[in-house]
Amino acid sequence: MMRAGARDYVVARPLYSEDSFNEEHKKVYRHHKTVLDHVKQYFRCDAKRAKNAALSLLPIIGWMKIYRIKEWLVSDIVSGVSTGLVAVLQGLAYCLLASLPPWYGLFAAFFPIITYFFLGTSRHISVVLCLMIGSVVTRLIPDEGPAANITGFTGLTVDEQRVLVASSVTFLVGIMQLAMGVLQVGFVVMYLSDTLVSGFTTAAAIHILVSQLKFVLGLQVPGISGPLSIIYTLEIIFNKITSSNVCDIVISLVIMVAVFLVKELNDRYKSKLPVPIPIEVIMTVITCGVSYAFDFKSRYGIDVVGKIPLGYEPPVAPNLQVFQHTAMEAFPMAIVGFAVAFSVAKVYSIKHDYTIDGNQELIAFGVSNIFGASFKAFAASTALSRSAVQESTGGKTQIAGLLSAIIVMIVTLAIGYLLEPLPKSVLGAVVIINLKGMLMQFNEIPYLWRRDRPDCVVWMVTCGAATLLGLDLGLAVGLGVELICVVLRIQFPRCSVLANIEGTEIYKDRKDYICINEPEGVKIFRIPSPIFFANMDFFRNKLVEALGFNPLRVLKKRNKALSKIRKLLKKGDLQWTSKGFMNTTNNSLVDPLEDSDNEELDKPIDFKDLPIRIDWNAELPGNIVVPRVAIHSLVLDFAAVSFLDISGLKGLKTLLKELVRVEVEVYIVACDPYILEKLHNCCFFDEEVQPSMFFLTLHDAMLHILEKHPETTILTTVTVHHGSLSLRSRDKNNTDKDRIMMGRMSDFRLEALAKDSLAEDHEKIHRKHKALMEHVKEYLTSCDANRAKKAVVSVLPVIGWMRMYRVREWLLGDVVSGVSTGLVAIMQGLAFSLLASLPPSYGLYTAFFPMLTYFFFGTSRHISVGSFPVLSLMVGAVVTRLVPEDGPHANITDFEGLTQDQQRVLVASSVTFLMGIFQLAMGVLQVGFIVVYLSDTLVSGFTTAAAVHILVSQLKFVLGLSVPGINGPLSMIYTLEKIFVQITSTNICDLVMSIVIMAVVFIVKELNDRYRAKLPVPIPIEVIVTVIACGVSYGFNFEKRYDVEVVGTMVKGYEPPIVPSVQVFQESAAEAFPVAIVGFTVAFSVAKVYANKHDYPIDGNQELVAFGVSNMFGATFRSFAASTALSRTAVQESSGGKTQVAGLISAMMAMIVTVALGFLLEPLPRSVLGALVIVNLKGMLMQFREILYLWRRDKPECVVWVGTCLGAILLGLDFGLAVGLGIELLTVVFRTQFPRCSILANLPGTDLYRDQKDYPLVCEPKGVKIFRIPSPIFFANIEFFRNKLVEAVRVGFNPLRVLRKRNKALRKIKKLLQKRDPGITENGLEDLFWTATNDPEENTEVLELPADLKELPFQMNWSAELPSEFSVPTVNLHSLILDFSAVSFLDISAMKGLKMALKEFTRVDVDVYIVSCDALIMEKLHSCMFFDDEIRTSMFFPTLHDAMLDVLEKHQDNSTGSVVRKK
C-alpha cells in the first residue's frame, strides 16, 4: 500500500485536553435507555411485530413460500431416501450408546424430525440423538445392582425402566432448551469455543470407543458411570479379554475395513459421485442376511439386535423423581446438544446463504425433545456426518428431513423384523469407524501449542477432564478453564513503557526500537487491557516497577519527615533563616526511627505551618532522608482500556491521589468516552483528581508537558502559533512567553507511514522470548547461597522481623494488645464453635494452636488468627451433613465406638486438615494470585449471605429451641420453617437475656467506635457481659430453674493429637476447597489493609503456606478452620500491637483459660453466645446498602453481588461461592463480549477521529468507513464483531453475499460468452445479456473464492448498472479502516474469524487498513502465518491518520469531496 518514507504531512490544530476539546466541540446529547425503557420496548406489540413473531416461531411458513418445486423436489427426495437409510442404521447403532434396546433409536430418528420440520430454521441439518444419555441411564439403572429408589420404576422391567429414564431426561432437556429459547439466551453457545468443542468431542469419541469395545469383542461388561468410569470399564474389559467372541471380532474387523475404505473413496471422488455410496447400509444388509442364513446367534453365541416390535408405543408421562435425580446432567446435555446442532447449522447456512436464529433453534430443539420424549424417543441434536449426507445428496430444505423420517417410519411399521438377526458387533463397528473424524482432532494439539498455548491448555484440560470425570463434569471444567483463560489474558497483560520514535508523533515500547527519545522526568505507561478487580493490583505493581518508587511509601516518608521537622522547629533545635534551615544544637537532630501508626501519613502533604515549601529533591535538614522522585510527569495511555469496574475505579483513584500527593503530574490519554462518562457518574473527580488531567492523544499530553517543563525535549519539528486557550487551571499563572502554551496551535511535520515503512525507517531491537522450558530450567537450577538464604527467610518470616524487634518501644504495646485480643478471642472461640456444631470448649483450641504456628510462618504482623464465623458455619454444614442430630450418621468406619460429639470433632478436624493441605499445596505451587478472582463485590455479597445464615443458625439458641441442623440447598428455608413451627415453645429467659445482651453490646460497641481516638483500648464489652452472665446463671441456677441450655462441662487441658479420617476427606473434598479459598481470601484482605497502613510487605504465597501449616497443625489437636476476623484484628492493632508477639500472648491467654479457668465458663448460657454472634453481624448485614450504590454505578457488579448473595443463601455457602465466581467471570467475559463498537469520523480541521454519533459536525470521506473495536477479540465475540462490522459498512451489505452474487454473475457471463460470439459489440454488456436466463441455484464452495476475471475480454465494473437479470448488490465502499488501538489480544478462533472477514472484504475490492495494532499481536499474526497473497502486512498502519491519508491519496477523487454531515 505505501512505500517507506513516501511523503510527509503537516498537522495544524490546537493542543487539546478533554476539557478544552469539549468546550470547542460540543457533543450531541444522546439519551441512554434505562432498563425499564428496554423492557417496555421489548413488550411493545403491533401488527407488524406480531406477524414477524409468528413467522419466527414457524419458520416453515417463510421457506415454504419460496419453495421451488421443479428445481428442488427431486433433490429433496433423493436426499431424504439416502439420509433415511443412514438414519435407520445410526438410530440402531447409537441406541447402544444410550444403553437402550436398539429399536428405540428408530423412535428418536422419527419424532424429533417431525417437530423440527415446522420449527427449525436450518434447512440442511439432520436431527439425531445425543450421545450423553447413556451415562444417566446406567447410573440410575445399573447392569449389576439395584436401581435407584424411584417409585415410578415399580412393576417395570429393566428395559422399561431405562426407557422411562431416557425419555424423562430428554423431556427435561427439552424444557431447559425451550426456556432458554423463550428467554432469548441463544448467545450462550458463543462460550463454547471451537477449541473447547474440539477437546470435548474428542473425549466423547474416546468414551464411545470404549463403550463399543464390549460389542466388538462380544463381552458382557456392565455399564459404569461417574468419574473414572472409563478406567473401570477398561479394567473389566482387559480382565475378560480371554473370553472374547472370535466371530464378533472377525465380523467387526471386516466391517470396519470395508466401511473405512469405501468412506475414503467417497471423500476422494465426492465431486464425481452423484450420491455417496451408502456402505453402512450395504454392509448391514449383507451382515443381516449372512447372520440369518448361518444362525450366528445359536451357532457362535453372537449377541444380535433381537425382537423389534412393529409400530409405535403409546405416549408416556415423564417421571418427576427422575427430574430430581438428573437435573445436573440434563443441563449440560441441553447446552451440548444445542451447541453442536447450532455449529453444524451455521456451517450450512453460511454455505447456502440463508440466516438461522439461535433462539428459534433452541425453541425448535426444546419442543422436539419434549414431543419426542412423550413417545419414548430421547435427546435430539444433529450429527455432521448425517447432515453432510443430506446436503451432499442434493437436499435443499427440511423436506428431505421429513422424507428421511418417513423412511424410518416405514422401517418401524413394516420391515423392522428384517433387522432382528443383525449382530450388535456390526452396530458397534459402524459406530467406531464413524469416530475417525473426532479422533483425528488429536492432531490439533501440536498446532495449538505452537500458536496459542492458552487455547492448547483449554483443549487438553477439556479433553482430559471429560475423559476421566465424565462428559458433564468435563464440560463444566472445560468451560471454567476457558473463561479463566480469557480472564488471565486480560489479568496479566504485557504493560510497557513507551518512548517517542524520533521525528514522529508515534510512541512505541522503548525496548523495541534503537532510535528513541525518552524525555527526562517523564514516564509513559501503557495499560493494554481493561482495568478490573482481578488486575488492579497487577497494574499498580507494574506501574510502581516502571516508576522505580512506591508513591504511597514516599508519601508516608515525606509526612514523617514533615512531622519531625515540625517537632524540631517547636523544640528550637532547628531554625529557618534566609539561607535555609539551620541546626541550633551540636547534637544529632535525628530521633530514633519511629514506627508511626498515624493514619494521617497517607493524607496530602500540608506545608501551612512551615516557613517554606520543602524541596524534596534537595538536601533535607537534620540528616532526614526521604526517597527522591526523579519523575515530574506520568502519562497513562488508556487507549486499550475498554472498561473499568468499581474495584478498578476505586484502585485507580487511590493510585492517582498517591501520585498527585508526591507532586507527580498525571495525564491520562486516549480514554474511551464511555469510561469518562462512567467516571463522572461515579463521582470520580474531586479537588485532587480533576478532569483536566485527561488528554485526547498521547502527543497532546507530551506537548503540554513540553511547555510546562521546557527542559523536556521531543525530537519532532514543531512550529508554535500563539493562542489563548488554557488546559489546566494550575497553569494560569504561568507568564513565561517563551514557553509553548497549552492550547496553542501546533504544526508538526511527520512522515505518513505504514507498518512496513515504519519498520524499514526505524530499526527494531530483536527480543528473544524465552521458551517455557527455559523458564522452568532457570527456576529449578538458578540456586546460590543468596537465593537459599532468601528462601529460608521467606519460609520463616519470624527470622526477619524478630531481628529488628524493638523491645523497649514495642513490647509493652504487644503485651497490652495480646491480653485484650486474647479475651476477645476466647469469647469468639466459644461463640463460633456453635456455628461449627461443636462443643464450645473446642473453640479455645482454635484460638491457640493455629496462632502458635502462624507466629513462625506468617508475614502479617497484625492479623489475629483464630476462628472466623463464615468458616465455622461452612465447617458446621459438613459436620451436620455427616453427623446429623436426627437420623443415622454417614457410613464411615472411623466413627465406630465414638460418641456423637467425638464424631463431630473428628469430622471438623479432618475437614480442617484437608483445608490446610489445599492451602499448603497452593502456597507451594505459588498460586496465591487466585485470591484476586474474589473481588470486593463478590466477597461482600458472599459474607452478607453468610451473615444471614449465621443469624438464622443462632435463632435457636436465642429463642431456646431445639432445632436440628439442616444442610444443603434451601437448608435455611427449612430451618426457618422449623423455627416458626416451634415458636410457641420459646424459652422466655433465653429470649430476655439475649435481647438485653444484644442491646448492651450494641450500644457499647457504638461508643467504642465514636470515641476510639480517646479510649486507650476498646471497652471489652463481650468479656464483661460474659462474666456477668456466668455469675448470674450460676447464682440463680438458670439451667435447672428456667431450663436454659448452658455450655456445660469444659474440657480441662488439651487432648492428645488425632489422625484425620481419610474417609471424611473423600466425603468432604468438594466442601473443603471453598473453605480453604474463603479462609485465605478473608485473611489476606485484612492483612493487606494493615500492611499498607504500616508500610511493610506481605507475601500471598507465604500466607497460604502459613495458614495451611496452621490449619494442619491445629486440626491434629482438634481445632477447626482458622482464618482471621477484622473485628478481632482491629482490637489487636488499635490496642497497640506491633508484631505477632501480641498474637502469641493472646494464644497464651487462651491456653490459660483452657488449662486452668475453663470450669468458670460452664454455667454460661448458650443464648449469650448466640446473642454475641448476632450482634457482631452488624457490619456484614449493613452491606445490603451496597445494592443501590452498585445498581446506579455499575449494573454488572450489582448482578455479581445479588447473584452471589442469593446463591449462597439458597444453595449454601459452597455452591453460592461457585455460583458467584462463575457469574463474576462471566461478567468480565460479557463486558468484552459485547463492547460498544462505533463508526468514527474526522472532526474538521483536526487529525482527531471520534464516534460520528457524538458530534454534530463531522467529516466522512465518501466510500470510507472507520470501525473501532474497543475490546480484545476472542472466541466469544468474533461473531459479534463480524456482525457489527457488516452492520457498520452499510445496512444489507454482506461481503460474503456480494462475493457469491458476483461469482454467480461471472459464471453466467462466461457461459454466455461460450455460447455466443465472444466479440463485444458497441452495446457492450447489454447485447451480451439479453438472452440470460436463471440457472439452477449453485451451492458450491467455489463461489467464495476470489472473483476470476482472466477469461473475460473486458474489464468488469461492478459499480456500473448491470442488466436486470443479474442482481448483484452495489458496494459503495472502497476502503475500510479497523481501529485496533483497544484490541489487547487475539485467540485462535478470533484469528481465523478475522482472516475470513478480511478476505471477504478484499475479494469484493474493498481495501482494508488495520491501525494502531499492538506489537505483540503483530508478532503473533506472523508466527501463526496469518499473512498470504490476499492479506499482507502492508495493510497495517501505526496511526489512523496515516491510513486515512493513504486512502485519500489512492482515491483522490474523494479527497476533496468529503461529506460533511450536520445533524
Runs in which pLDDT lies below 50 for 5 or more consecutive residues are 1-6, 589-598, 715-749, 1317-1322, 1329-1341, 1459-1463
Give the end-to-end Cα distance, rounded to a whole number of Å: 34 Å
For the secondary structure, the number of strands is 24
Structurally, how many domains make up the residues?
A: 3
Mean pLDDT metric: 82
Biggest β-sheet description: 7 strands, mixed
Q: Any idea what the shape is?
A: globular
Spatial extent as radius of gyration: 37 Å
Helix content: 40-55%
The class by helix and strand makeup works out as alpha/beta
Number of helices: 58
Strand content: 5-15%
Report what the structure shows:
The chain is of the alpha/beta class and 1463 residues long. It is 55% helix and 7% strand. The chain is built from 58 helices and 24 strands. Helix 10 runs parallel beside helix 11 (229-239), helix 10 (194-217) packs antiparallel against helix 23 and helix 40 packs parallel to helix 47 (1166-1175). The longest helix is centred in the C-terminal third of the chain and has 33 residues, at 1062-1094. The protein is globular and about 110 Å long. The protein starts with 7 loop residues before the first strand and ends with a strand. It is found in: Membrane. GO terms for molecular function: secondary active sulfate transmembrane transporter activity.
